[in-house]
């Protein structure tokens, strides 16, 4: 077990008085686990994020809560940072059984309206996005990988309430500040415990990796532009202890935000250089770049991560157009081409 992976070990780990980190499994996922945080208050137990609605995840959550003297029925509320299934779907599953209140950022409404609407997989807006990126080979591979059948809406439901804008959330002896941080998703929130010196950061600020940008059912106009603005908003808050959704707890949000801003500056330069050298679409530009800390070639990524790489490259190219460093136009196939 390396230092980078020991955070995935099961259990309930106290990170502050009345706050426990509970890692839950993500089978067949490179991230390995997602941290949910149990916050004790005078009004009951609140969980920040819920995990993925999987049998093993539920067993791990029940066992971890038992360690600190609670059960699933003691959870009074889920504060969910964003709508991705490894954060949201288990909260919905627990609500079906115990009536637990589920809260989510209002920016996720458009995505959930799509996810809860019966439709065919072939009608996915993400397929249209990939075609705009010039990634027809990925679209064809994705269609070939899908099994026959429609879109499963059973695990997707609306929350009990929407958190709209920067909001104070009193939790019975502890106050959290919900701060909208769009970018990873349109409705992403972080929850800051300013008095306790903690930030429940979801996927907005991660200690070892950069969150994916731009791959969602209802993306905003400039996901990376929104993400960079959100990083700066978090940087303006007091420096807090980083409680991420993936990875170990670290001491400084500010230090990691500075590293993420520097990384995206470098990535913007790399995308501009690739586009200027003749890589026209987002898909072609992504293929010209290296990926992950290991500097892997695009072709060495699996299909899902190739899709993430393509849409993230698109997000960088959109920012470069906004900055005036590139211009764009549509080609005859409906894909967007970027050039100096």
TrEMBL record:
Source species, domain of life: Bacteria
Domain Metallo-beta-lactamase: 33-246
Organism of this sequence: Actinoallomurus vinaceus
Name the UniProt record assigns to this protein: MBL fold metallo-hydrolase
Pfam families from the UniProt entry: Lactamase_B
